[in-house]
Amino acid sequence: MSSTRQTDLPDHIDAAVLKIAGVVVLGAIMSILDITVVNVALPTFQTVFGTTGHPIAYSTVAWSVTAYTLALATVIPLTGWAADRFGTKRLYMTAIALFVSGSVLCATAWSIGALIGFRVLQGLGGGMLMPLGMTIMTRAAGPHRMGRLMAILGVPMLLGPILGPIIGGWLIQVASWHWIFLINAPIGLVAIVYAWRVLPRDTPEPSESFDFLGMLLMSPGLALFLFGVSSIPSEGTATAPRVWVSMLVGATLMVLFVVHSFRPEHPLLDLRLFRNRNLTVSIITMFLFAAAFFGGLLLVPTYFQEVRGESTLQAGLLVAPQGIGAMITMPIAGSQVDKHPIGRIVPFGLLFILIGMFGLTQLTATTPYPVIITELFVMGLGMGATMMPLFTSALKTLRAHEVARGSTLLNITQQIASSVGVAIMSVLLTNHLQASKLAGPAMASLHLPALAEKIPAAAIAQGLEDAAHAFAETYWVAWGMVLLTVVPALFLPRKREEAHLLDDEGVPPVIVQ
């Protein structure tokens, strides 16, 4: 490993960088694929882990998604410290092995509680993959090629959202739900071998002290707060002790964490980086965007299955246009980030999302599929022009020694926002569905012919319309959150700024084999 000056680096993405990018892409696909694969399986979990005629509440099975993303957020702050202590290559391979082990255990789950527990283990491995990969690639590419590299990385990474629902639906339909987790085993083994051969040898350095007190404050605080939010549907009210006590204790711990973070020299999360205006605005924008977009993302396949009666495979195919739309705009946005300020790119991406998501606020039980597919495609166009530019802009203005901490903040923001979004949307949807006495039986009748014979056709039709209205009402909240995201997005840089990804001598550290 050596350092090379920025002027010695080619403008194009060369083979040496692409080889390292391949390792990062494999890990990212595996982690992202697992989120989208499980989204399409939530209705299956409701039935499999419930009792005959009494499926588990949607908000309960949604914890299989929330627990995973929460575990991702929990382990991300450890990554920078552990990479210094044990070496990037060794840690990356360990993270993949932990992720694969958790996946295999998920396939053996005998109850929804066991599945949620194993998903936490899986997330602890998956959480290290993205920040490690971003740090590796930021250093390998140099600041003047980051936009193009992020675009190249973004396209194959989007195979996860596109193929996830399709693969998940197909595996559930032709085999069983167990295989949506077992599929990670061969991918993980290939990734471990690839990483061992391609990544440069580790050179661990004396690591900084670890902020154990910060870890003890943040992780339980976040978990308790989200647990309280997700408990509202089962309790029926936000005033139940299980809800408000959990939320109050969680919020208190997180406030104490913020106060504590400014005391140690090496805090768990370096909140001092918020002095960087671009990073601050990017993180605020990222939080609102991720909560709205990823929270709403899990609703679509559930709508297709529970309201329209589609199979898991068909639901996956119907969701795919969203990923295709993102694949189109992501490389375009990536190339433009190297030429134009992000403040002139991201607002247009949010505009596409607002247009597409507004259509989903009008969902009915009979909305034509071409209309829904078009709306999802437009949302995908917006996502491709929003996500990667936000990451790129924030990292380009950091010094070399700040990159690991900056990527940690960005990644944990995205994961926490996703957890919050999933919790909020699942709670809202469950509450709206419970408000209708006909929605539950009508949705169940689509998959149980014997039940359908006992319910009048008019009641089924009304129940499905009520269910569709519940999805539409939930999307209004997501749409409002995206609209709110426009406010910080307007404060993103509108003038081109030079990248500051340099060390103290003005040299960008680059991994060269």
Instruction: Give the distance, in angstroms, between the N- and C-terminal Cα atoms.
Output: 6 Å
Largest sheet: none
- What pattern of helices and strands is seen along the backbone? HHHHHHHHHHHHHHHHHHHHHHH
- Given the helix and strand composition, which structural class is it? mainly alpha
Low-confidence stretches: 1-10, 500-513
Can you give the helix content as a percent range? over 70%
Oligomer: single chain
Q: How many E strands?
A: 0
Q: What fraction of residues sit in β-strands?
A: under 5%
Shape: globular
Helices, by number, come to 23
Q: pLDDT average, as an integer?
A: 79
Taking all Cα atoms into account, the compactness measure Rg is 22 Å
Short description:
The chain is mainly alpha-helical. It has helices spanning 15-39, 42-48, 58-61, 63-86, 88-107, 112-141, 146-157, 159-174, 179-182, 184-198, 212-230, 232-235, 241-260, 277-297, 299-306, 312-337, 346-360, 369-384, 387-396, 403-434, 439-445, 449-452, 457-489.
Description:
The protein has 513 residues and is an all-alpha fold. It is built from 23 helices and no strands. α1 (15-39) packs across α8 and α20 (403-434) runs antiparallel to α23 (457-489). The longest helix has 33 residues, at 457-489. The N and C termini lie close together (6 Å). Mean pLDDT is 79; it is low at 1-10 and 500-513. Its main location: membrane. It comes from Nocardioides panacis. Residues 20-497 form the Major facilitator superfamily (MFS) profile domain. Belongs to the major facilitator superfamily. EmrB family. Keywords: Cell membrane, Membrane, Transmembrane, Transmembrane helix, Transport.
